[in-house]
Amino acid sequence: MYELFKNLGGWLTSGEQWAGPDGIATRLAEHLQYSLLATLVAAAIGLPLGLLIGHTGKGAFVAINLSSFGRALPTVGLVVLVFLASGLSMWPVYVALVALAVPALVTNTYAGMTAVDPDVKDAARGQGMRGHQVLLQVELPLALPLIMTGLRLALIQVVATATIAAYVSFGGLGRYVFDGLAQRDLVQVMGGAVLVAVIAVALDVTLAALQRFLFRHRTA
Amino acid sequence: MTIDWSWISGHTDDLTTLTVSHLQAALSAVLLGLLISLPLAVVAHRVRPLRGFLLGLSNVLFTIPSIAVFVLLLPVSGLTRTTTVIGLTIYTLVVLLRNTVEGLDSVPTRTKEAAKAMGTRPLRTLLTVEFPLALPVIMAGVRIATVMSISLVSVATYIGDGGLGQLFTDGFQRNFPTPVIVGVVLTLLLAVVADALLVAVQYVLTPWTRRRA
Predict the structure, then answer these.
(1) Which residues in chain A touch residue B142, judged by CB atoms under 8 angstroms apart?
(2) Is residue B44 part of a domain?
(3) What is the ipTM of this complex?
(4) Are A215 and A146 spatial neighbours (Cβ–Cβ below 8 Å)?
(5) I want to staple B77 with a disulfide (CB 3.0 to 4.6 A). Which of A74, A144, B69, B83 is the partner?
(6) Is residue B183 a contact partner of residue A74, using CB atoms and an 8 Å limit?
(7) Where is the ABC transmembrane type-1 domain (chain A) (predicted)?
């Protein structure tokens, strides 16, 4: 056990391991690229959808069911399925990651919108604000903390799951996990897993700090 | 992407075995998760300083990717079912612990005081007053944890377990979509059925919520 951790420490800190086209630095950049792009696409789909459902109050039933459906959908199966349908391309990775992130974003955005005090919305309308003005100037800012929570949740899940890119022969930190498993090299497997966990936690902490900074003037 | 129906009819035995094994892994994790989080939630509910620590800890555990959890457990429990169940249990904790604490918080103070005034002992109050009243919130957590576990079992296919997840590896390696489609459909089906059963259990266990309505 001690020997394993010593080797793991050596693996994580050796300069050799960090450099080159299959070095940790490259894999880390790939992993972040997959995760951030997928989260952005998911946000572009999920945020407007959540805002629309929250603003109009229509389709809430669909949104809630979508989220439990999304939770039940096995990501590994989805990746393989899209892979078999589309062949060797980045589609399987992005489809699976976006499908994973959208439900979390929609439900949290919707939850944020429903938490806005109806009196505040009435007051905004009473002052002559139009529908889109109420949405963008009143509801959205008030719902923002919960929307940010949804974004954090989605990003963590996506970063964790982006390991799957390596399963369909692409890069990212999952490379170490899958290559290590194939080569029965436990140090490499654990090194990859530790790196994924570290960047997931680091991104979450960063976004939490950003969230606190952005909403520092608000009293809960 | 056509479905080979004869493959399905020829493999009903395998499919049944995998489905049962899948469900076993997910349910063991949820039961184990409950066994751990119920006492911990009581502690978190009663001892304020520990509350933030316990909930924070379960949040951090949740951030660790499932594949990483399985892999990090390898030196401890190897390529076994135990690894799968421990890994899944860690994931259920965040939902179960938070919901149980929130459920206990939602019990009105007056109700607890009334129980005390009638001479009910603390443990009995916990078991016959607080837990039953917290049940709807706890059950909401159990439902989320169950659906999540059923979906996550397939990740354990990388460490040689994974129930229906094995169909994904099989279909991937042979470039044959049928097992993959069947695996996805059966997983979704298991999740829907388990969720419906839990709703029914809650309905039976909490008759007072119906009488009020």
Answers:
(1) none
(2) yes
(3) 0.82
(4) no
(5) B83
(6) yes
(7) 28-207
